[in-house]
Write a structure and sequence with these properties.
- Helices cover about 20% and strands about 30% of the residues.
- The chain has about 210 residues and is of the alpha+beta class.
- It has a nine-stranded mixed sheet.
- Strand 6 and strand 7 form a beta hairpin.
- It is elongated.
- The two termini are about 45 Å apart.
Length: about 210
């Protein structure tokens, strides 16, 4: 038979060597508050703020103290595109269309700073960005971020090629930089290269 919340609270308090009165003081209640909860069932449920403090104090999940299990995070669909960005000497961009939709937790995209409508996945080929990006890595690209930053990696269209590089503004043009020292910088005049989006996540097979 499963414990009631009151029984669980008594057991946790006994194991810690603390009284219900001391726990009541911990959550800012009168000294009899938790004694009444355990013995008389008043209140019927612990308040959310009280439950959170007690769960943190005992190092347990709030569900043990009457909390509701968190719902699974919602999923959003991200298009996986046919095009590949070259981490090498250049990759013809080809036709861009979605092969399929892949499901991602909305929270993952939010934590990465990507709005779902701006997200897409492409493949990386070549070795110019090793060891950061390896051939076969998939790149989660934020198409709303077009402002090159020194700490970022971007997908860039250069004539008929799609490249993945670090990007530096040089006057009116761009310089495309590789992490692999075997590849020299590429200098692009104004209008020769267009930033497509920022690589926010690498999706690498284990």
């Amino acid at each position: 038979m499963s414990e009631t919340v009151g029984e669980t609270l008594e057991r946790l308090a006994a194991a810690r060597g603390i009284s219900l009165s001391e726990l009541s003081r911990l959550i800012g209640r009168n000294l009899a508050y938790l004694q009444q909860f355990v013995r008389r069932g008043t209140p019927r449920r612990l308040a959310e703020a009280d439950r959170r403090v007690l769960a943190q104090f005992f190092g347990v999940d709030e569900t043990l103290l009457g909390g509701t299990a968190a719902a699974d995070p919602p999923l959003v669909s991200v298009p996986y595109l046919t095009v590949a960005a070259s981490a090498g000497s250049g990759q013809a961009a080809g036709e861009e269309r979605a092969i399929r939709q892949e499901a991602f937790a909305a929270r993952l995209l939010r934590d990465a700073g990507i709005s779902p409508p701006a997200a897409s996945i492409i493949d990386a080929v070549g070795d110019s960005m090793t060891p950061t990006i390896l051939p076969g890595d998939r790149l989660l690209v934020d198409r709303s971020d077009l402002a090159p930053a020194s700490d970022g990696i971007f997908v860039v269209r250069r004539e008929e090629e799609l490249l993945v590089k670090r990007v530096r503004y040089d006057g009116a043009g761009l310089t495309l930089l590789s992490d692999n020292p075997d590849y020299p910088p590429l200098t692009c005049a104004k209008g020769e290269a267009t930033v497509i989006g920022r690589v926010r996540l690498l999706l690498r097979e284990p």
